[in-house]
Amino acid sequence: MIATSSSIRIDSESRIPKYQQIINSIIEDIEKGALSVGEKIPSINEISEGHYLSRDTVEKAYSLLKKKKIIISVKGKGYYVARNVSHSQTKVLFLLNKLSNYKLRIYNSFVNNLGPDSQVDLNIYHCDPKNLINLLKENTGAYDYYVIMPHFKDQELNHLNYDQEVIKSITDIPSEKVIIMDNYLPDAGLETAAIYQDFKMDIYQALKEGLARIKKYEKLILVYPDKVIYPYPSEIKQGFKKFCVEFGINFEIIDTIYADMDLDQHDAYIIIEENDLINLIKQIREREFELGEDIGVISYNDTPLKELLGITVMSTDFKVMGETAAYMIKKHKKEVVKNVFNFIDRGSI
Length: 349
Fold this sequence. Notes:
CATH superfamily of the largest domain: Response regulator
Strand order of the largest sheet: 5-4-6-9-10-16
Largest sheet: 6 strands, parallel
CATH topology of the largest domain: Rossmann fold
CATH architecture of the largest domain: 3-Layer(aba) Sandwich
CATH class of the largest domain: Alpha Beta
Helix content: 25-40%
Radius of gyration: 26 Å
Number of domains: 3
Structural class: alpha/beta
Number of strands: 17
Order of helices and strands: HEHHEEEHEHEEEHEEHHEHEEHEHEHEE
Shape: elongated
């Protein structure tokens, strides 16, 4: 038998397939530290000749190990350990469309609730369908679960809910291993778990809850950023329009808070982006208007700073979203759940 750095253990009397015994031997050696990340492992020829096995058997074992990203091959040099493994850990690939405070709050809640017996790898695909497809293809079979936030953009920076190639890539993964988060895709035919926001009806219901306060203003203005690097769901505008039309509210949609805005008393604003909120509050103070009396402000998505400043918000509960996704994994649940969305009145409307 040829001496190697890994002790491949083959029991000819066992009913476990020989290729699986090779896999088990290498994984066990990595777990106990006999093999380290970056260390070379026996070649296919070494195992084949040393254990009187067919090359096909060894190649099958190595192919499966490569698919799980446990080993990698380097042309002309051989095979190497790619990452640490642990059977006790749940391995999760967490795919964010963008990096923001809100997304990180979901991610941190998810990681904290999943617990120490897990390995969560975070990747950002920047709302680019091609990036997401490549990440899914590169990591198919390497993780126990895939948590995906599906928000996309086209070349004109319009928000897209649906991309056929992305859906196909998701369906290539067993449905019980996928959790769709934040933006649910009911028309895609996915049979996966989901914890999501209903962007159209969430804003509609939140504004309906604040109707009495909103009606004291003469006009309601939605500041919806247009043509931004990470576009927002158009359903937000749809829900806003639905509310205003049904309740006879005079409304306008603008794309940003401009310098030297033509601020009129008895106007109320719904602000999505932080910079717009800062610019509006600054101009309100400079003109000595009273927030919540002369000018009303509702901000989209809550933060500790908005709570400190006393800004009325309508927001999903990011912490609960992360908790729910972690619960589904820990309890092996396959449910579709709409996340909590709240209207929190702090006196700025």
